Write a sequence for this structure.
């Protein structure tokens, strides 16, 4: 038995509200179940009960066993002084308040409907090597209800990404332009180099980026130098030597310190994703697009973003992927699929967070944009697809990632529309 099932049953009133008896055989009627508390303290606040004919108002605490009260040290916590009912699966010990008064216990084992228990054990009691608990039933859930749930999950994911943005804002003294630069850097690094590029963005004063935006070569030299990509002493490549000289000048001029900047990796990357190419593209973006934050925050259509990010790496990188080694000529432009990732992981979260900061609701605008983007193709979305759950668009694929990472692998099935439907037998 898990405590989250007890929470689910109490919160949703899945037991009779009258004609109940405590473990001490006192009559019990539930007038109000209370408000679910997600913070520290008792599980449900402001409940109203009638115990043995006397009206009680206070809090309710739930445990699998009564003895968990002492195991969790609630007896020493003043937040639990107003608990008027201890709801448990098994009442294995009598629990007392600090003043030595007994706290009445309701033993749910006597009242939970057998159908809910059967569905619960079906959901959690089978093989543990499954992708998700409900993999045999998830595709059978009412599609309208499931689509609403996915939209909610997407905005839940945006809220989580807003937390990261707000942390960066605090570090950047509310400089939204700098936060955009940091997050673009992070996502230009993709999965392998995201942390390295993030460390670069945090270490570099954005005022320097502003000052150098008129000179792409200087900005590129600065990004490469700080990343450690100019540390090759043996190469006699002319472009590398020019960059090394420029970086040395900029480092002394701006008193730049590269401490805490991680070096990016080339390991198992396609050449188009090499850090050399991505940093050059970013330098060209900031060297050719003024007022980037304002332009991106005010987008209305996907095509506007494609136009803004229609940039290439510098000329040298059209015939090189690393210093000193020629490669077949290629423009090394940002692809639409890469721009879509920037939209999903940087631009739309920034729009959501900035608009929320301003007190403006842009949910309709965000949905209209993300529904036009193709679903992401990754290990999680493919596994859902194999279970008969298709994503269709980027909002759904983002929602699937949120569902899997925040609910499925944490066994939060009681809080999921799918799990709720399965417990109800629908």
């Amino acid at each position: 038995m898990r405590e989250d099932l007890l929470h689910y049953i109490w919160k949703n009133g899945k037991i009779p509200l009258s004609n109940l008896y405590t473990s001490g055989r006192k009559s019990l009627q539930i007038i109000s179940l209370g408000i679910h508390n997600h913070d520290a303290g008792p599980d449900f606040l402001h409940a109203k009960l009638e115990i043995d004919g006397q009206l009680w108002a206070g809090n309710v605490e739930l445990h699998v066993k009564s003895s968990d009260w002492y195991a969790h040290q609630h007896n020493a916590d003043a937040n639990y002084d107003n608990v008027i009912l201890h709801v448990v699966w098994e009442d294995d010990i009598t629990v007392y308040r600090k003043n030595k008064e007994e706290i009445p216990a309701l033993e749910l084992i006597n009242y939970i409907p057998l159908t809910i228990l059967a569905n619960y054990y079906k959901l959690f009691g089978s093989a543990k090597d499954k992708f998700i608990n409900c993999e045999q039933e998830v595709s059978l859930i009412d599609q309208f209800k499931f689509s609403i749930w996915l939209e909610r999950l997407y905005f839940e994911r945006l809220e989580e990404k807003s937390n990261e943005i707000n942390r960066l804002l605090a570090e950047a003294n509310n400089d939204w332009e700098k936060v955009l630069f940091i997050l673009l850097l992070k996502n230009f690094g993709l999965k392998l180099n995201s942390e390295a590029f993030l460390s670069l963005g945090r270490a570099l004063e954005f005022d320097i980026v502003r000052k150098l935006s008129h000179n792409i070569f200087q900005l590129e030299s600065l990004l490469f130098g700080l990343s450690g990509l100019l540390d090759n002493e043996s190469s006699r490549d002319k472009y590398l030597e020019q960059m090394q000289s420029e970086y040395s000048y900029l480092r002394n001029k701006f008193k730049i310190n590269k401490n805490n900047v991680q070096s990016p990796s080339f390991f198992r990357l396609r050449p188009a994703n090499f850090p050399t190419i991505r940093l050059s593209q970013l330098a060209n973006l900031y060297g050719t697009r003024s007022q980037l934050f304002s332009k991106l925050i005010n987008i209305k259509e996907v095509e506007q973003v494609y136009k803004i990010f229609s940039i290439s790496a510098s000329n040298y990188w059209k015939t090189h992927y690393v210093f000193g080694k020629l490669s077949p000529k290629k423009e090394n432009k940002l692809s639409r699929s890469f721009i879509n990732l920037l939209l999903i992981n940087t631009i739309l979260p920034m729009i959501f967070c900035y608009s929320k900061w301003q007190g403006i609701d842009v949910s309709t605008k965000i949905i209209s944009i993300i529904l036009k983007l193709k679903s992401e193709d990754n290990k999680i979305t493919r596994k859902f697809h194999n279970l008969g759950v298709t994503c269709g668009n980027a909002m759904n694929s983002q929602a699937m990632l949120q569902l899997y990472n925040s609910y499925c692998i944490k066994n939060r099935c009681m809080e999921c529309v799918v799990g709720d439907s399965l417990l109800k037998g629908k």
Notes: The CA atoms of residues 318 and 331 lie 5 Å apart.
